[in-house]
Write a structure and sequence with these properties.
alpha/beta, 10% strand
Protein backbone atom coordinates (compact mmCIF):
# COMPACT_ATOMS: atom_id res chain seq x y z
CA UNK A 1 0.00 0.00 0.00
CA UNK A 2 1.31 3.39 -1.03
CA UNK A 3 0.31 7.02 -0.64
CA UNK A 4 0.70 8.64 -4.05
CA UNK A 5 1.09 12.42 -4.00
CA UNK A 6 -0.06 14.70 -6.80
CA UNK A 7 1.73 18.00 -7.45
CA UNK A 8 -0.61 20.16 -5.34
CA UNK A 9 -0.18 17.95 -2.28
CA UNK A 10 3.58 17.85 -2.74
CA UNK A 11 3.77 21.64 -3.10
CA UNK A 12 1.48 22.32 -0.14
CA UNK A 13 3.26 19.89 2.18
CA UNK A 14 6.53 21.59 1.28
CA UNK A 15 5.07 25.07 1.88
CA UNK A 16 3.67 23.95 5.25
CA UNK A 17 7.09 22.43 6.08
CA UNK A 18 5.49 19.01 6.63
CA UNK A 19 6.87 17.08 3.67
CA UNK A 20 9.91 15.82 5.53
CA UNK A 21 7.76 14.64 8.47
CA UNK A 22 5.52 12.66 6.13
CA UNK A 23 8.46 11.14 4.27
CA UNK A 24 10.06 10.02 7.52
CA UNK A 25 6.83 8.59 8.96
CA UNK A 26 7.47 5.03 7.83
CA UNK A 27 4.64 5.18 5.31
CA UNK A 28 5.34 4.25 1.70
CA UNK A 29 5.11 7.62 -0.05
CA UNK A 30 5.63 7.73 -3.81
CA UNK A 31 5.51 10.40 -6.47
CA UNK A 32 5.33 9.66 -10.18
CA UNK A 33 8.16 11.21 -12.19
CA UNK A 34 5.61 13.21 -14.23
CA UNK A 35 4.26 14.71 -11.00
CA UNK A 36 7.69 15.70 -9.71
CA UNK A 37 8.35 17.42 -13.05
CA UNK A 38 5.40 19.74 -12.33
CA UNK A 39 6.86 20.83 -8.99
CA UNK A 40 9.40 23.59 -8.42
CA UNK A 41 10.35 22.70 -4.87
CA UNK A 42 13.96 22.43 -3.75
CA UNK A 43 12.90 20.24 -0.80
CA UNK A 44 10.98 17.79 -2.99
CA UNK A 45 13.79 17.47 -5.50
CA UNK A 46 16.44 17.14 -2.77
CA UNK A 47 14.43 14.41 -1.02
CA UNK A 48 14.08 12.61 -4.36
CA UNK A 49 17.83 12.86 -5.05
CA UNK A 50 18.55 11.56 -1.55
CA UNK A 51 16.23 8.60 -2.06
CA UNK A 52 13.88 9.63 0.75
CA UNK A 53 11.12 10.51 -1.70
CA UNK A 54 10.52 7.53 -3.95
CA UNK A 55 9.99 8.45 -7.59
CA UNK A 56 8.13 5.91 -9.69
CA UNK A 57 7.65 5.34 -13.40
CA UNK A 58 4.10 4.56 -14.49
CA UNK A 59 2.26 3.51 -17.61
CA UNK A 60 -0.24 6.28 -18.36
CA UNK A 61 -2.01 3.89 -20.73
CA UNK A 62 -3.56 2.27 -17.65
CA UNK A 63 -5.91 5.25 -17.39
CA UNK A 64 -8.74 4.59 -19.85
CA UNK A 65 -8.62 6.97 -22.79
CA UNK A 66 -12.11 8.34 -22.09
CA UNK A 67 -10.95 9.53 -18.64
CA UNK A 68 -7.79 11.36 -19.76
CA UNK A 69 -9.12 14.56 -21.37
CA UNK A 70 -8.47 17.53 -19.11
CA UNK A 71 -6.12 15.70 -16.76
CA UNK A 72 -2.59 16.93 -16.30
CA UNK A 73 0.36 14.60 -16.75
CA UNK A 74 0.92 14.38 -12.98
CA UNK A 75 -2.70 13.54 -12.20
CA UNK A 76 -2.77 10.94 -14.95
CA UNK A 77 0.39 9.37 -13.55
CA UNK A 78 -1.03 9.28 -10.00
CA UNK A 79 -4.19 7.61 -11.26
CA UNK A 80 -2.22 5.12 -13.38
CA UNK A 81 -0.11 4.13 -10.38
CA UNK A 82 -3.22 3.59 -8.25
CA UNK A 83 -4.85 1.51 -10.97
CA UNK A 84 -1.77 -0.72 -10.97
CA UNK A 85 -1.70 -0.77 -7.15
CA UNK A 86 -5.38 -0.60 -6.11
CA UNK A 87 -4.71 -0.64 -2.36
CA UNK A 88 -2.88 2.69 -2.71
CA UNK A 89 -4.27 6.09 -1.78
CA UNK A 90 -4.23 8.88 -4.37
CA UNK A 91 -3.80 12.37 -2.90
CA UNK A 92 -5.42 14.66 -5.47
CA UNK A 93 -7.06 18.06 -4.94
CA UNK A 94 -8.25 19.00 -8.43
CA UNK A 95 -11.95 18.28 -9.07
CA UNK A 96 -11.53 16.46 -12.37
CA UNK A 97 -8.80 14.19 -11.03
CA UNK A 98 -10.95 13.36 -8.00
CA UNK A 99 -13.96 12.63 -10.20
CA UNK A 100 -11.94 10.29 -12.41
CA UNK A 101 -10.45 8.53 -9.36
CA UNK A 102 -13.94 7.95 -7.97
CA UNK A 103 -15.23 6.74 -11.35
CA UNK A 104 -12.35 4.24 -11.46
CA UNK A 105 -13.05 3.07 -7.90
CA UNK A 106 -9.72 4.28 -6.53
CA UNK A 107 -9.02 5.27 -2.94
CA UNK A 108 -8.63 9.03 -2.77
CA UNK A 109 -8.12 11.85 -0.30
CA UNK A 110 -7.28 15.50 -0.69
CA UNK A 111 -4.51 17.39 1.01
CA UNK A 112 -6.85 18.56 3.80
CA UNK A 113 -7.73 14.98 4.76
CA UNK A 114 -4.08 13.97 4.45
CA UNK A 115 -3.30 16.72 6.97
CA UNK A 116 -6.07 15.37 9.23
CA UNK A 117 -4.41 11.96 9.10
CA UNK A 118 -0.98 13.45 9.78
CA UNK A 119 -2.25 15.38 12.82
CA UNK A 120 -3.94 12.23 14.16
CA UNK A 121 -0.65 10.34 13.84
CA UNK A 122 1.38 13.03 15.63
CA UNK A 123 3.38 13.99 12.53
CA UNK A 124 2.71 17.72 12.89
CA UNK A 125 3.95 18.28 16.42
CA UNK A 126 1.51 20.28 18.50
CA UNK A 127 -0.02 22.11 15.55
CA UNK A 128 -3.81 21.90 15.48
CA UNK A 129 -5.65 20.73 12.38
CA UNK A 130 -7.71 23.93 12.25
CA UNK A 131 -4.51 25.97 12.19
CA UNK A 132 -3.08 23.86 9.35
CA UNK A 133 -6.26 24.27 7.32
CA UNK A 134 -6.09 28.03 7.86
CA UNK A 135 -2.45 27.97 6.71
CA UNK A 136 -3.56 26.25 3.49
CA UNK A 137 -5.51 29.36 2.65
CA UNK A 138 -2.59 31.59 3.63
CA UNK A 139 -0.33 29.87 1.09
CA UNK A 140 -2.96 30.39 -1.63
CA UNK A 141 -4.78 27.05 -1.64
CA UNK A 142 -8.50 27.40 -2.27
CA UNK A 143 -10.59 25.39 0.18
CA UNK A 144 -14.19 26.17 0.98
CA UNK A 145 -15.69 26.51 4.46
CA UNK A 146 -17.85 23.42 3.96
CA UNK A 147 -14.80 21.24 3.27
CA UNK A 148 -12.98 22.66 6.27
CA UNK A 149 -16.00 21.95 8.50
CA UNK A 150 -16.24 18.39 7.16
CA UNK A 151 -12.53 17.69 7.67
CA UNK A 152 -12.68 19.07 11.21
CA UNK A 153 -15.80 17.09 12.15
CA UNK A 154 -15.04 13.73 10.53
CA UNK A 155 -12.56 11.17 11.80
CA UNK A 156 -9.29 11.18 9.88
CA UNK A 157 -8.88 8.62 7.13
CA UNK A 158 -6.80 5.58 7.97
CA UNK A 159 -4.12 5.74 5.31
CA UNK A 160 -2.27 2.83 6.89
CA UNK A 161 -4.85 0.28 5.76
Amino acid sequence: MFIVLDASALILLDQLELLTALLRSGLKIVVPRATLAEVDSPTSHAEARNGVLTIVEVDDELVPLEHRPGLGAGETAVLAFCIASPTSWAVIDEDLGRQVAKALGLRIVGTARLLSFMVSQGMCGKVLLGDLLARLRQVGFWIDDQTIAAVLSEPPPNLRE
